[in-house]
């Protein structure tokens, strides 16, 4: 449990999808406000509409605020934005897309200003959010532009962490968008985040092939020999424990994937299909950015929107993971600050302990205070 009640922003997503339903169901448990201080960015009208359709959420009371800096601990705070004239569950409309973008932009602005510790996003419809001033194929690409980073999409669960070299692009464009440089950079990002954000001392990363049977020595494709294998070799020379390339069916057919702390897939469905089969309540984490962002691992689910059927576990997990990642990242920053003085103090302690063991009559030195 966080001692400081981290402020977690939650963007409403598409108000005609299941976003509000899973948000309300996740926050209906009073223990959630003990874990963090949630700040929802979205439409009060949509909040009231969905609250009346969900039995567990009828008693949820919102604390209306203008900005996250006004948020109260122990309350479900709501920043009004992303309004819509009409709420029509299950229908993809440009108005709902605009509302989703407005809420997202407001949340990201407060994240950049330091009013939020992390951001959790409910799903939006990638088609209806498109406009003259929003030309992004997903949250990941937008956050990369806003936070000036090179984001790596990692699907996470207790048993799997799968990163993607290419994300939201057509299958026909995958091969030409895979380069040795991109694979090496993604492996560097994945290693860094597995260490700093997940607390793994030295992660082992499996790299997936692009073609069936890993290309069969060039018979079924040359990307493995010309791009992927050289990238793995270069990453290994840089100290990254990268292995492969592995054919996707072989890696996931048995328990091969369990031998690695992370897996780098070449394209969206190659990574998400096995991930969702093995981890139905996983979380999408955007690595490689200065701020933490997570989301449920599913979309708007228009087919069940407004029916009270949506499972909120992935949203709960996204909130849990956001708090964990912030705390682990901050702990890592503390542990690695001023490493040389700390290392020297440790060496001095070891010398003193060794001298004391060799000479029991020697007075044991008093312990030094940590800085």
Fold and architecture overview:
With 371 residues, the chain is of the alpha/beta class. The protein has eleven helices and twelve strands. The chain has helices at residues 19-27, 32-35, 44-51, 94-112, 139-146, 180-196, 223-237, 248-253, 268-278, 313-335, 339-358, and strands at residues 7-11, 37-42, 62-65, 76-80, 118-121, 152-156, 161-164, 204-208, 241-246, 262-265, 283-287, 292-296. The protein has a twelve-stranded mixed sheet, with helices on both faces. The protein starts with 6 loop residues before the first strand and ends in a 13-residue tail after the last helix.
Give me the secondary-structure category. Answer: alpha/beta
What is the strand tally? 12
Note the run of SSEs as H and E. Answer: EHHEHEEHEHEEHEHEHEHEEHH
Instruction: Name the strands of the widest sheet in spatial order.
Output: 3-4-2-1-5-12-11-6-7-10-8-9
The poorly predicted ranges are 364-371
């Amino acid at each position: 449990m966080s001692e400081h009640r981290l402020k977690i922003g939650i963007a409403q997503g598409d108000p005609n999808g299941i976003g509000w339903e899973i948000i309300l169901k996740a926050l209906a448990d009073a223990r959630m406000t003990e874990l963090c201080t949630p700040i929802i960015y979205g439409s009060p009208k949509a909040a009231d509409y969905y609250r009346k359709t969900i039995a567990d959420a009828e008693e949820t009371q919102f604390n209306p605020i203008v900005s996250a800096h006004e948020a109260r601990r122990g309350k479900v705070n709501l920043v009004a934005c992303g309004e819509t004239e009409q709420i029509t569950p299950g229908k993809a409309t440009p108005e709902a897309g605009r509302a989703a973008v407005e809420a997202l932009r407001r949340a990201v602005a407060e994240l950049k200003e330091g009013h939020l510790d992390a951001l959790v996003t409910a799903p939006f419809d990638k088609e209806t959010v498109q406009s003259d001033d929003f030309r992004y194929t997903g949250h990941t690409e937008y956050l990369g532009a806003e936070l000036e980073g090179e984001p790596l999409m990692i699907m996470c669960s207790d048993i799997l962490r799968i990163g993607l070299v290419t994300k939201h692009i057509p299958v026909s464009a995958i091969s030409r968008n895979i380069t040795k440089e991109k694979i090496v950079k993604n492996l560097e990002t994945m290693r860094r985040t597995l260490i700093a954000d997940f607390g793994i001392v030295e992660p082992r990363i499996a790299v997936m092939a692009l073609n069936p049977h890993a290309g069969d020595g060039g018979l079924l494709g040359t990307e493995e020999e010309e791009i992927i294998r050289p990238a793995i070799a270069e990453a290994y020379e840089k100290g990254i424990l990268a292995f492969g390339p592995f054919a996707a069916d072989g890696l996931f057919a048995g328990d091969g994937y369990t031998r690695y702390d992370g897996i780098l897939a070449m394209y969206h469905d190659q990574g998400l299909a096995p991930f969702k089969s093995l981890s139905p309540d996983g979380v999408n984490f955007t690595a490689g950015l200065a701020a933490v962002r997570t989301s449920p691992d599913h979309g708007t689910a228009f087919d069940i929107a407004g029916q009270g059927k949506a499972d909120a576990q992935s949203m709960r997990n996204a909130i849990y993971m956001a708090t964990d990642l912030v705390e682990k990242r901050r702990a890592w920053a503390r542990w690695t600050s001023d490493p040389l003085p700390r290392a020297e103090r440790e060496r001095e302690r070891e010398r003193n302990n060794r001298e004391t063991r060799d000479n029991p009559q020697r007075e044991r030195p008093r312990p030094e205070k940590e800085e």
